[in-house]
């Protein structure tokens, strides 16, 4: 353990420099920004760490998928899932540091994608190099990477690519992309993920904006969309789309027992994000962990219509659109929910509201009794020096289900973030101390997984 710690420390400056290189190259899939350049950087970093890389484009309908492999002594194979694309940095005015610089300040490194997910790419490559140094240049197991470029826009092309390349990515277990420390410094590990139906709602009634005086006789797309959105949920949060809750797989008592150990920090949540209203748990009195793990959601993610600039402009908008996501639990079908949403809005008199499914993903949970889960928990305990918190599922979403479907392997998510990382928000960051622990955790796991 002490030797491995020293080797991780020896790799740290290089890992930090590689992370800064990744941050300094924007790679925003939603804006088609910097994708080829980032692919080239990731391939170079893999090859510089002793791996072989292959950029998959044949049969990949979207941004390229990077396959990487590092040879190992045993027949066992560990797969890492990461993504090189990041969220847009906007609103830029809310950043206190340049989102594309990777600046280190007060024990943290800041930048878009540092937590989600470029930090984990750098940490895992550093862990591989540390373990190679500990074992005479060898790894105790084969390591593979799948690094995609569309996670932040729904990974639409990934399921077909995984089916096509299932033999290439075949492995015994998978470490997912994210994780980190809670406010008490305990590493949080995730064995599952919620699904999602992400939809665009659009209403268009004219070719141009009108003078708002015409509101006396012309229907307003913004009001139409507002009323349509209001029809989707009750004030108490219950979703009204027919069949929305049908098919949900009830959690077992064992699963509820695992979930009951998960902490929740309402005060810290409010402080980090500046939340001013009472949390829903406070308004309606339900259990927050029950909601985060076992309940689906329906959320308005964005609204746009008419004039929203400085000052006044009296217009009747020609169109209005909104983006909504429904986070799903096991047993729910995102494509059925999309069809039901369209039918429901039409039946409510909103046939003029066009609905488009932009992303559909199923939920996935790993069996918490799988031996791989115990290995990840044990090595996290060693690396972080405290008892980890194991979650049945993240409240977020990612393309975990096709990995389970086509590769049929246990999956656990862990990483180097922390409760204040602000992923997807301005001033995204990770703490350097957590980055070190994340590297050490992966190094210990590689040793144990390979039988060393």
Describe this structure in words.
This protein is an alpha/beta fold and 452 residues long. Helix content is 35%, strand content 22%. The protein is built from 13 helices and 21 strands. The strands form five sheets. It has a six-stranded mixed β-sheet, with helices on both faces. Strands 10, 12, 14, 15, 16 and 18 form a six-stranded mixed β-sheet that branches. α1 packs across α13, α4 packs parallel to α12 and α11 crosses α13. The longest helix is centred in the first third of the chain and has 23 residues. The chain is globular, with a radius of gyration of 23 Å. The mean pLDDT is 96.
Offer a concise description of the structure.
Helix content is 35%, strand content 22%. With 452 residues, it is of the alpha/beta class.
Strand count: 21
Mean pLDDT: 96
Distance between the termini: 12 Å
Based on Cα principal axes, name the global outline.
Answer: globular
Low-confidence stretches are: none
> How much helicity do the residues have?
25-40%
Per DSSP, the total helix count is 13
- What is the strand arrangement across the widest sheet? 1-2-6-3-7-19
Q: Give Rg in angstroms.
A: 23 Å
Tell me what portion of residues adopts beta-strand conformation.
15-25%
Largest sheet: 6 strands, mixed
Which structural class fits the helix and strand makeup? alpha/beta
Q: Helices and strands in order, then pairings?
A:
Blueprint: H1 2-24, H2 35-48, E1 52-56, E2 65-70, E3 77-83, E4 104-105, E5 108-110, H3 114-134, E6 142-148, H4 158-164, E7 173-176, E8 180-181, E9 187-190, E10 192-204, E11 210-211, H5 221-230, H6 253-259, H7 266-273, H8 280-284, H9 288-294, E12 299-305, E13 315-316, E14 319-328, H10 334-347, E15 354-361, E16 364-365, H11 371-384, E17 389-391, E18 394-397, H12 400-407, E19 411-413, E20 417-418, E21 429-431, H13 432-449
Parallel strand pairs: 3-6, 3-7, 7-19, 8-20, 9-17, 10-18
Antiparallel strand pairs: 1-2, 2-6, 4-5, 5-21, 8-9, 10-14, 10-15, 10-16, 11-13, 12-14
Helix pairs in contact: 1-3, 1-13, 3-13, 4-12, 11-13
């Amino acid at each position: 353990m002490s030797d491995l710690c020293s080797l991780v420390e020896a790799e740290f400056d290089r890992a930090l420099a590689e992370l800064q290189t990744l941050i300094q190259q924007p790679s925003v899939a939603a804006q088609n920004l910097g994708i080829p350049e980032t692919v080239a950087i990731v391939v170079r970093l893999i090859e510089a760490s002793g791996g072989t890389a292959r950029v998959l484009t044949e049969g990949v309908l979207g941004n390229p998928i990077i396959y990487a492999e590092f040879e190992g002594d045993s027949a066992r194979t560990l797969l890492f899932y990461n993504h090189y694309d990041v969220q847009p940095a906007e609103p830029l005015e809310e950043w206190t540091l340049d989102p594309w610089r990777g600046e280190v300040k007060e024990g943290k490194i800041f930048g878009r994608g540092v937590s989600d997910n470029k930090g984990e790419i750098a940490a895992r490559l550093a862990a591989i190099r540390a373990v190679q140094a500990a074992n005479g240049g060898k790894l105790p197991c084969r390591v593979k990477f799948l690094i995609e470029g569309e996670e932040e826009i729904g990974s639409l092309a990934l399921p077909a690519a995984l089916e096509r390349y299932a033999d290439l990515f075949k492995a015994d277990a998978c470490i997912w992309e994210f994780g980190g420390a809670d406010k008490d410094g305990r590493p949080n590990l995730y064995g599952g993920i919620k699904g999602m139906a992400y939809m665009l709602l659009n209403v268009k009634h004219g070719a141009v904006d009108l003078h708002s005086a015409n509101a006396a006789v012309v229907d307003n797309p913004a009001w139409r969309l507002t009323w349509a959105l209001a029809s989707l949920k009750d004030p108490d949060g219950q979703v009204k789309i027919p069949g929305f809750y049908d098919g949900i797989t009830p959690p077992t008592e064992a699963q509820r027992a695992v979930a009951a150990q998960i902490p929740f920090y309402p005060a810290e949540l409010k402080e980090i994000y500046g939340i001013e209203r009472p949390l829903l748990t406070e308004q309606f009195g339900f259990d927050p962990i029950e909601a985060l793990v076992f309940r689906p959601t329906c959320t308005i993610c964005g609204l746009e219509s008419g004039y929203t600039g400085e000052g006044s402009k009296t217009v009747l908008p020609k169109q209005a659109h909104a983006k909504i996501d429904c986070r799903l639990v096991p047993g729910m079908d995102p494509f059925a929910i999309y069809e039901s949403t369209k039918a429901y809005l039409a039946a409510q008199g909103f046939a003029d509201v066009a609905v488009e499914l932009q992303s559909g993903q199923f939920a996935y949970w790993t069996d918490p009794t799988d031996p791989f889960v115990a290995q990840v928990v044990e090595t996290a305990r060693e690396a972080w020096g405290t008892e980890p918190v194991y979650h049945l599922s993240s409240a977020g979403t990612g393309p975990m289900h096709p990995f389970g479907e086509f590769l049929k392997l246990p999956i656990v998510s862990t990483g180097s973030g922390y409760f204040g990382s602000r992923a997807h928000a301005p001033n995204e960051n990770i703490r350097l101390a957590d980055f070190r622990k994340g590297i050490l955790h992966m190094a210990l796991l590689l040793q144990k997984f390979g039988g060393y």
